[in-house]
Structures are given as structure tokens and as C-alpha cells.
Amino acid sequence: MDRQVLERLNSLRRERRAAIVLTNVENGDAMVIVEGDPVDEALAESVERALRSGKSGMVETDTGRFFLNVYLPPTRIVVIGAVHISQAMAPIARIAGFDIEIIDPRTAFASSERFAGYDLFDDWPETVLKERPLDPWCAVAAITHDPKIDDYALVEALRADCFYVGALGSRKTHAKRNERLLQAGLTEAQIASIAAPIGLDIGAASPAEIAIAIMAQIIEALRKRELTRSVPASMHAK
Question: pTM (2 decimals)?
Fold first, then answer.
């Protein structure tokens, strides 16, 4: 790989930004496409599909054959609440290839015995998220059912434009939560993006079933996320 391309990729990786190395297989020319960059109209659909799926592959167009090598930041799932649901979510997330961490200041719940082998923080979200800030490649699931613990994380997740934000609770509980979040300075549009009640509506009853519903909703949000868009441009303009 060209050194300039590699340096650009390393920089984007540190910034946790999505990118594609587009290589013309006929002449070997390569360029880095960052999400939101203008691309040739003939490649736009393939680039968009690759940025959503994370899958690399070959594309043939009227202008030539290209290989799209996709580099997506690792998706980070942050669960607020070391409860039975998060105990079930942790192995599901790992099997699906996600990084997952659990935050809960209640040490009776946040014990290494209950979450052996997983990133666990027995501290308040205010403390943990200041040291480990959220970004658009994070999913946040607030499931303690305690506003003293959940609300700060929800505010930070919405301000960071996380690709998924979900919260446990009934519609009545969520209505009260909305009032608190408005008072915290969030907009109605931001609050409306919260998945509440959390998880896909599959009739889940047990903690394990709820965990599956939440993970399915997170995956759906990731793969169907709205991409940063730009006006198509000619490859020659690059």
C-alpha cells in the first residue's frame, strides 16, 4: 500500500472516521474516500453499500474495475446498567463482533463475577464517559431504569450523535424522561431519536429475549444508518 494512503488511513482510524481505499485494478492507482467525500456517480451506490455493510469487494463500471477496501471504526456498545439484560447482551454482542462495555455505579450489580471477561466500570457514567467519550460509532443502551444513572448517559449520547440510543421503560416512564431531557437542553428532535421502549417489538419477555431485541435494533440502526452525503463528482475531478 502506498505510504501516503497508509498515513491517511492511520489518521482516519485515530479520528474514528469511515473510509474506503478505492483501487483501480487496471492501473493500480489508489485513493482514499472518506464518508461524505464526493465520488463518481457510477460508484456512488457501491460506496454507500460498502460504508453501511463494512464489506470490501470488486466493482465494475463503464470507467473500469475497482476494488473497494473498507475501513470502518470498531463499533462500541455502551450499556448503562449491569443488570440481567446486559448479562445476556454481552456474549451476543461479542459473537456478533461488537466491542461492549457495561457501566454501573452499583457495585452489587457491577461485579467481575457477573461480567467475567468483559469491560466493566463500577462508576458513574459522568466519570467514565468523560474519560471514554462517546462518538457517532457508539451505541448506548440505558437500562438501569434509574434516571440518576441513565439520564446523563442519554444526554451525552444524543449530543455525541451516537448511531443508536435506546432506553428501557414504558411509554409513561419515557414521557417523564422526555421532560427531564428537555430541561437538560436537548431538542425535541434529538429526544425523538431515542428508541423507547428499547428493542425491536418481537414480544420479548425474559431478559435474554429483551437482550436479543436490543441487539437486533442496534444492528439495524448500524446497517441502515444515514450516511454523511455529498454531491456526486467526477473521478477526474479528484
Answer: 0.88
How far is residue 169's CA from residue 152's CA, in Å, rounded to a whole number? 16
Q: Are 74 and 99 in contact (CB under 8 A)?
A: yes
With left for phi above 0 and alpha for psi between -120 and 50, is residue 45 left, alpha or beta? alpha
DSSP, res 97: T
Domain boundaries, the chain: 3-73, 76-223
Q: From first to last of its 238 residues, what are the pLDDT tens digits of the chain?
A: 688 899 999 999 999 999 999 999 999 999 999 998 988 888 999 999 999 999 999 999 888 899 999 999 999 999 999 999 999 999 999 999 999 999 999 999 999 999 999 999 999 999 999 999 999 999 999 999 999 999 999 999 999 999 999 999 888 999 999 999 999 999 999 999 999 999 999 999 999 999 999 999 999 999 999 887 654 444 434 3
Report the distance separating Cα 53 and Cα 31, nearest Å: 20
**Single-letter amino acid, residue 158:** L
* CB 81, CB 27: distance < 8 Å: no
**How far apart are the C-alpha atoms of 38 and 231, rounded to whole Å?**
6
76-223: in CATH 3.40.50.720: yes
